[in-house]
Amino acid sequence: MPTTLKAKFDTRREAEMTVERLVQEQGIDRKNILIATDGDDNSVGSEQAGADTAGEDPTPQSRDDAALAGKIVVSVDIADDARAAEVKAAFNEFDASDVQG
Fold first, then answer.
1. Lower CB count within 10 Å: N or C terminus of the chain?
2. Beta strand segments in the chain, E
3. Which domains occur in the chain, in start order?
């Protein structure tokens, strides 16, 4: 029976790492994964990470204008309930919160 699993992440980087884990190691089709903001505003998460953090020399000048307007939501549609444990393990590996499904 098809089901949708959802989780929220504090940073865009955590969400992206989760998606890559699901696609590359679990073989989930990228078309079955949706990444969105937890709200209507553009957001990179509720915390800075990766390219949104301060740079070190000799990189270009750091930016402090990251859109920190809320968490990032990853939704995964799976046709096989047995895969739910794999998806939830990937969510947990990258510090997901509010896991549903």
1. N
2. 3-9, 33-37, 72-78, 97-100
3. 3-100 (3.30.70)
| 33-37: strand order across its sheet | 33-37, 72-78, 3-9, 97-100
To 10 degrees, the CA torsion angle through 91, 92, 98, 101?
60
In the chain, the amino acid numbered 64 is D
User: Cα(10)–Cα(24) distance, rounded to whole angstroms?
Assistant: 22
Residue in 79, 92, 101 with CA at minimum distance from that of residue 29: 79
Per the DSSP assignment, residues forming a β-bridge with 35 are: 74
